[in-house]
Specification:
CATH architecture of the largest domain: Roll
Strand content: 25-35%
Shape: elongated
Number of domains: 2
Radius of gyration: 18 Å
Order of helices and strands: EEHEEEEEEH
Number of strands: 8
């Protein structure tokens, strides 16, 4: 079966930055719905017409993947508002940020604690791969027809590469998470 709209592909991959540093390796196949919101459009387009066993090498610029880095999504917040055991790398949903945080911080964004200072912490609403050009080596492990449920949901149920535009981006564009 060839890959086309409304089918499910099982992929494995190696994801690297442009310097060749490995960012992610997926050895066990994961299923994605083509024509849904599981994969970035350039990946879907490149997969079209291929079948089981195909190997593809893709280069994605930031705007084709997780977006450009947006410094408007960095927030310096009082350390005292957060738990004492806070660590870099912890995440907070914008809607559940403690009272007293910057009211301009979009509520529908996931924030990562990027730095901790004695009196402040830095919250970063950018995707960890924002601003990074990516090299993706894909292998198609399987292709099958999508179920009615998958088509209705727009997803094969995976969270990898899921695109969630932030509606309240201060610069008016979409940020990907």
């Amino acid at each position: 079966m060839e890959i086309s709209q409304q089918c499910v592909v099982a992929l494995t991959w190696t994801l690297k930055d442009t310097l060749g540093e490995e960012l992610d390796v997926l050895d066990d196949p994961v299923e994605f719905l083509i024509g849904g919101h599981d994969l970035f459009k350039p990946i879907e387009e490149a997969l079209q017409g291929h079948g089981k066993g195909a190997r593809l090498e893709l280069h994605l610029e930031p705007e084709q993947a997780f977006g450009d880095f947006n410094d408007q999504l960095l927030f310096l917040e009082p350390r005292a508002l957060f738990p004492k055991d806070i660590e870099a790398g912890m995440t907070f949903e914008g809607a559940s940020l403690p009272a007293g945080c910057n009211p301009d911080a979009p509520k529908d964004t996931l924030y990562t604690v990027s730095e901790i200072y004695p009196d402040h912490i830095v919250l970063d609403g950018n995707h960890p791969l924002a601003g990074i050009a990516l090299r993706l080596s894909l292998k198609v492990q399987d292709v099958r027809e999508a179920t009615v449920e998958e088509i209705g949901a727009g997803s094969a149920g995976t969270g990898f590469f899921r695109i969630q535009p932030v509606q309240s981006d201060p610069l008016g564009g979409s940020t990907l998470h």
